[in-house]
Fold:
Amino acid sequence: MTSALLFLLFAISAPAMAKSNCGSFQAAVPGPALDLAPPAGFIEICGKDKALCEELTSGYPPSVKTVGYFLTPLEWQRYRQGRSIGFTRYLIAQVAGSTSPSEFSKLKNYIRSRQGDIPDSTDLPPSFNSSGQSNLGVFEDTNDAIAIGVIMKLQSAKPKVLADVVMASTNIAFVTKKRLLSLYVFVDVTSRPRAAPAKQLTREWLQCLRSAK
Structure:
């Protein structure tokens, strides 16, 4: 998930550009169709392994419903072959059940007032303990979205089994199709701790979602 998207600015139009770099996944939700439009190079795995999906999302509060969990094909293959030591680049899409689209403006004001430092009740995966994090604040703020982020240092709860990692993570509130989505982007930045890869992937996903509206 570290590869950059190449934009041929003078060869094709912006809408075509967005479409060619975006995938498509129709979420299983009632009402209007919802295309989660992950960036190209991701596949949805909850439909392939329900038990794994439930395990990976068990730490999120019951007020949200996970409607998509996206991995790169390579990491999915490694997991299926029993060679995975953890995912390094993945996306999660959830429908917010406790906050309606009409409350989006209030939510944005709250996030701004906290400068992106929002209390998080999400449980870490059982293999890790948090050993510190740095708040990235609000880095995207538009009519239909607001994005915040953190860089987290995760320490293995099982010594000699998993190496400590540094993850850049973003959380996006996005309004579409009469729904409020809560989206997450995770990128392993252990080798070079910085926020840029997660921010870039976040903006790519937002571009894809907007083109799919």
Remarks:
- The helical segments are 14-20, 50-56, 73-80, 104-113, 196-212.
